[in-house]
Amino acid sequence: MRDPCSSAVRRLAPGSLILLTGVTGYIGSAQAWSLLELGYRIRGVTREAKRAQLLSEKVTAQYGKDALEIVECVEYTIAKYKTLFEGVSGFIHMGMDTTYDGKPREMIKGMVDWTLAILQAAAESPSVKAGLLTSSRVAVFHPEPGQTIHVDASKEIWNDDAVRHAHSSCTSPMKAVWVYMACKVEMERAAWTYIDEHRVHYAFNTTVPDFVLGRFGNPDPSSGSSGRYLQEYYHGDKNGVFVMFNTVPAGYISMDDLTTIQSAALLEPDIDRERIWASAGAYSLAETNVILRRLSQGKEAFEDQDVPPPPIIHAEHEQGRALDLLRRYGRAGGFQSFEDAVTETLEDSPRRVAHNRPDLFKLSGS
């Protein structure tokens, strides 16, 4: 990622330490590389340090042993995060525990408590100048087949239907997905409530990305989420999580675009208290199949499936800030194309494999 802007005008000076939660994950590891390329040091928080081994080795080889510090942490308390914020100038909270034991209320509360612990610990840490929460399009809406949606991503708009479904007694395969959506709703909503009520000293923004595809930051093959789901589909899993997500798709964003937007939102001094819509545009399962047939050169069958008509989503009016941040960081051409994002996902080596935790989406797709 090129940075045409002088480092002198950034909110955080190059060399500053930035805390990232979920650093071994798909977005978290790619975000680490984005900030490393801009000259920052990373303190990465993960629940399983062993999943960071290959990432650490790769970062050390390229940037030296002091560029990335890995901290294993399963304690989501203010006291713990106050120690993690020592010497930290900024943070991005991307962590999401997708292990699910069938208790939605406890899971949602746990994710909200984790978010609030981070925000309060940062508020009690004078060194922190900026923070960002990675939310999700599902915090705003979930489309229905054929539905026309004019996106409103203001801070007053929430996917309350997801919260109701998550707390309902329904037992459909979608229940775990509703729980995930409800977590995203309540994490971001609680964050904005806390920020507004406490008037914290640091700048704060959220991003609202849609389905993320593109390069993998962590060489560990168990890292991947949405990128891994596409790889699984490409290699023969025609009834898995990728199809579940894309029966009624909304939009996509490439990993390079998202991490650039998030780095810029953290570093640009005029960006504060904003909810940034981060979706490049709509796509469909049929469009995906066309690209995959071309990439496989006819070796794989990607037949169009009998799926409902896709929603019609109008979000151009919400894309201004994301495009502005991309331009500031050398991306004058705007968003990366869907085809390029798909291609980058499939070019990654080694092929991604699922880890052994009871993943929400694996439960839903089973």
UniProtKB/TrEMBL annotation:
What Pfam family does this protein match (any one)? Answer: Epimerase
Claim: Oxidoreductase is one of the keywords in the record: yes
Q: Which residues form the NAD-dependent epimerase/dehydratase domain?
A: 18-203
Similarity annotation: Belongs to the NAD(P)-dependent epimerase/dehydratase family. Dihydroflavonol-4-reductase subfamily.
- Record carries keyword Cell cycle: no
SUPFAM superfamilies in the cross-refs: NAD(P)-binding Rossmann-fold domains
Q: Which GO terms describe its molecular function?
A: oxidoreductase activity, acting on the CH-OH group of donors, NAD or NADP as acceptor
Q: Name the source's superkingdom.
A: Eukaryota
Q: Which UniProt keywords apply?
A: Oxidoreductase
What name goes with this protein?
NAD-dependent epimerase/dehydratase domain-containing protein
